[in-house]
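Researcher: Please translate sequence to structure tokens.
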Amino acid sequence: MADTPQTLALIVIAQEYRGDLVRQINRRATALRLLPIKRGSGPACSIATEADGMNAENYSEGADVTNYGSDAQGSGTHPWAMYRSTFRITGLAGAVAASGSTPMGNRRLWARNMVNSTAKLASTINAGIHTGAGTGTLIQGMGNAIGDTTNTYYTVDRSQAANAYFRPYVADPGVPTAPTLKLIKDDLGSIYDGSGEVPDIGLVPTAVFTKLESLFEPNVRYVKDLVTARGAMTLESGYEGININGCNFFRDKDAAAGTIEYINTNYVEIEYLPPDIPGLEEIMAAVPATDGYGALPLGFVYEMLAKTGDSTKAMVKSYLQLKVNRPNACGMRKNVSTT
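Model: Translation complete:
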């Protein structure tokens, strides 16, 4: 008889996937990790300001009072930004995934999509924190908040001399310029002179972070334990910071190229509208936001959408806005060369 082996090609066997699905996506949201996140209210995100106007003077013995003053109060508003992530799963896909043995992550396909949608939404919002245009229902990002001295921010026209108090510190040499320790210390000093405080964090793109590292080599001081206005936190792998004169610099994949954002977390926050959760008969719930590396308190809302066939649809949404309460305690350096 002929020796006929039963080869792999001649047998029927199920393909097993060892372990779980492995995400290949960078959705880290550094700004959302570091900035305070607070509940808001009302039809718009709002700021109340107080500028110098109080009187203090030298006077002669017995002189009557003729000069009075008080600090000037003002306010500004900006519309809420609106962001969402949606997904749809067919009935067949859900049933097949639930009945399969591997990969384990697909056994609960709906839950996996919820986690992935919140991670995508958090990453999208993180990008808006840096570069959002602020038009329509977009986030008004750092470029508008602390990267411009003559625009209108929260309905305050900063081109007017009377509103100079609401201007950030902006350094733009006009051509790509390599950062030096002196330049950064000068920036921090200028912000201190204008506000009496020094920014506690700096957010930069990866190329600028690498350039800053080279200023210290071989003696780089990295930061893992951090205290900001959000509280004390121990940063995870990938969030190491460099400390310069008390300001901790972190890389953020979404930071605008060639910039350094100087941020005082006492005056910069992300404000969100808390969800309006009706009765349980309406399928609606708050879900934790995540960038894939942990929860973020952003008040995300999960809603089931109308069913129109053999598939189920859902949406995760958020109403929020970036708010810089005191721009003169923050600033931005532009045209940072990384070569």
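Researcher: Any highlights?
Model: Residues 30-42+73-272+320-333 form one domain.
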